[in-house]
Amino acid sequence: TDVRGVHQATAWAAALVAAGEGREAITFLEQVRVAPTHLRMHLKEPRFDAVRDDPRFGRLMDRLRVRERAGA
Predict the structure, then answer these.
(1) Helix (H, G, I), strand (E, B), or coil: what is residue 19?
(2) Nearest residue to 64 (alpha-carbon basis) of 25, 16, 29, 23
(3) pLDDT tens for each residue of 52-72
C-alpha cells in the first residue's frame, strides 16, 4: 500500500483546508490516486470538518467507497 502517498496527500489537503482553500483541497483530492480505504479513513478526521458539508466532498467520499468495494 502507498501509506506515505496517502499521508502526503491528506497533509497537503488539510493545509489547504486550514488556509481557507477548501475548494482547492477537494479538487486536489479528486485527482489523487492512492488507496481509497486509507484515504477515506483520513478524510473522516476533524481537520476536514470545514469541507464536510460541501457536496463535492460528499461525492468524493461516495466515489472512494465505490472504488473501495471494487478493490481499486
Answers:
(1) coil
(2) 29
(3) 999 999 999 999 999 888 876
Residue type, 4: R
Using the CB atoms, write b or e for 24-52: b if 16+ within 10 Å.
ebbeebeeeebbbbbbbebbeeeebeebe
DSSP 33-49: -S-HHHHHHHHTSGGGG
Which residues are CB-contacts of 10 (< 8 A; sequence separation ≥ 6)? 39, 42, 43, 45
Cell of 33: 490516486
Q: pTM to 2 decimals?
A: 0.87
